[in-house]
Amino acid sequence: MLSLVTSLLSLLCTAVFSTASPLEPRAPAWEFNVRGNSGIVALEAIVVSPTLVVIFDRASDDPLQINNHSAWGGLWNLETNEVTALDVLSNSFCASGALLSNGTMVSIGGDPRGFVNNPTIKNGTTGLRLFEPCDDPAGVGCMLFEDPENLHLAEPRWYPASIRIPDGSLMIVGGIHENTGFFNDVERAANSVEFFPPKFGGVPRPSEFLKRSLPANLFPRIFLLPDGKVFMVANNQSIIYDIETGDERILPDLPNGVRVTNPLDGSAILLPLSPPNFTPEVLVCGGTNISDALDPSQISSQTPASDQCSRIVLTEEGIKKGWIIERMLEPRIMPELVHLPNGQILIINGGRSGVAAISNVPDPIGNSNADHPVLTPSLYTPTAALGRRISNAGMPTSEIPRLYHSSVTLTPQGNFFVAGSNPNVDTNLTVEFSSEFRVESLDPPFMSVPRPRILTAPSKIGFGKRFTVPVSIPSNLKASNIQVALMDLGFSSHAFHSSARLVFMDAQLSRDRRSLTITAPPNRNIFPPGPAFIFLTIDDVSSEGQRVMVGSGAPPPQTD
Ligand SMILES: *[C@@H]1O[C@H](CO)[C@@H](O)[C@H](O)[C@H]1NC(C)=O
Ligand SMILES: *[C@@H]1O[C@H](CO)[C@@H](O)[C@H](O)[C@H]1NC(C)=O
Ligand SMILES: *[C@@H]1O[C@H](CO)[C@@H](O)[C@H](O)[C@H]1NC(C)=O
Ligand SMILES: *[C@@H]1O[C@H](CO)[C@@H](O)[C@H](O)[C@H]1NC(C)=O
Ligand SMILES: *[C@@H]1O[C@H](CO)[C@@H](O)[C@H](O)[C@H]1NC(C)=O
Ligand SMILES: *[C@@H]1O[C@H](CO)[C@@H](O)[C@H](O)[C@H]1NC(C)=O
């Protein structure tokens, strides 16, 4: 549909502009545009307001300075395309993060190491870094809060995963106690689950699943399901986890020995949930099928990655059917899967061969364990027939490789922030696959046509409640297809977007096309209480997102 609209539009524009001077606007199309310089390598990214993205790097020798040393945190301004340094106390390298039910962003875990140019840096493995809701469009006065003595994880975690759960708090899964060269290992693994704010006495709960999925189980891919349980993928294994009891139900392994968590990163995403049934489906793409018993000295940067996508419906019937396979247009290690407001999935970045991490294989390219960067994204259409879901028709090609330590997020403007890549230990500007500071946007064709708008939205929306918003809809749109998406844009780190979620909401457009009556998700399992953006898509043309608070905005744990 999108491509149909695009080609119709381009036909139209070719006709209209056929005698145009070179200064006339180009036909609407997908485009990469370099927007600016991030000052630090944006290896983690999370949208924290309509205009701001928090980015993190390792404590290193980045050009962006604060208090006479290199910064490793920053606030990227989507309006001005400029970065402001954030003062971070502890090393946020390879952390995770998410938003709480009261809108506070939490960066979780990190690296124990210091850096010579940052003499005051603190050990980040138990790090909890809070960024309170920020109302200033440029982030003036907004800062990170850390109190390592009093506010910290129960167990050290480098490479953990974290998601917001139905009471609005965070579930934190896995990782390793300290930095590792490549794989996780039995002695140092954080094979446990804990919560922030703490639950169940604050004692981390051991997980057999994490034990079983060693050693390639860093950054587990985890999703909240509509029944309040949590689906997890690590290595080539999957389970459903009961938050209340800690029970783990073993699901089928990924087919064909494909492994998808760090350092053998594929990616995974919860497909859009739609009323009335909100049937959950998970898509897992890329990674590699090499054995996890190999020492990295036995792995090559040239070993083809996996082109496999595996999809499962998480109902009893779907679990019985198991994983259904489809193929990307190319193999990808470290791909990113990101929701579009119309329910399609962007597949972007990564390499065709090798594995994640830095200088472990005997034949690194520069210092990269991966090679042959994929520069052209694809779109995955979940509702299309099997075998016809993936296409790169009309997609642009970037000049910038995005391999290990890169990030992508949908923005409130409706385009994608694409940044980072640094398969090097610190800043290295002279090597192939050098430290990447250029920020690009990937702009959908609708960025250059008249778009629908949600003129205002209530600041809070209640579960199951109907609410009406004023809208404006360009007159050229017939409005034959109306989609309203409630979205968590996720925390991007290591080819995974923690908490990313798209829930479609039933919506009725008034006859005069000036107001839209929307029904919020029925309960906190479908969309856990917390900040979200609402996007309106009419005939595949998406609006900008309107920020709302789902639920009361109270701190976790929220109870009814
Ligand atoms: C930064 O360094 C300069 C020169 O050494 C010094 O005068 C200044 O006080 C330092 N500023 C901070 C915030 O440490
Ligand atoms: C970092 O902190 C953790 C948790 O307190 C501790 O176990 C570990 O030894 C520390 N590592 C270093 C290098 O200081
Ligand atoms: C998953 O990986 C383990 C080894 O890590 C292997 O024993 C098992 O057969 C794999 N499962 C499948 C379905 O290939
Ligand atoms: C592993 O992946 C490679 C590259 O995609 C493929 O050629 C090979 O057939 C796969 N092996 C198995 C056992 O699936
Ligand atoms: C960049 O990486 C290359 C390849 O490993 C290495 O020879 C060089 O010393 C590195 N440069 C810096 C500044 O670290
Ligand atoms: C949100 O809740 C967390 C956890 O209780 C707390 O640390 C933080 O200060 C709260 N933020 C706001 C804005 O209430």
Automatic annotation (TrEMBL):
Residues 73-446 form the Glyoxal oxidase N-terminal domain. It comes from the Eukaryota. It holds the Pfam family Glyoxal_oxid_N. The keyword Signal applies. Residues 1-20 form the signal peptide. The keyword Nucleotide-binding does not apply. Gene3D superfamilies: Galactose oxidase/kelch, beta-propeller, Immunoglobulins. Keywords: Signal. InterPro entries: Gal_Oxase/kelch_b-propeller, Gal_Oxidase_central_sf, Glyoxal_oxidase_N, GO-like_E_set, Ig-like_fold, Ig_E-set. Residues 451-550 form the Galactose oxidase-like Early set domain. This is Glyoxal oxidase. It comes from Somion occarium.
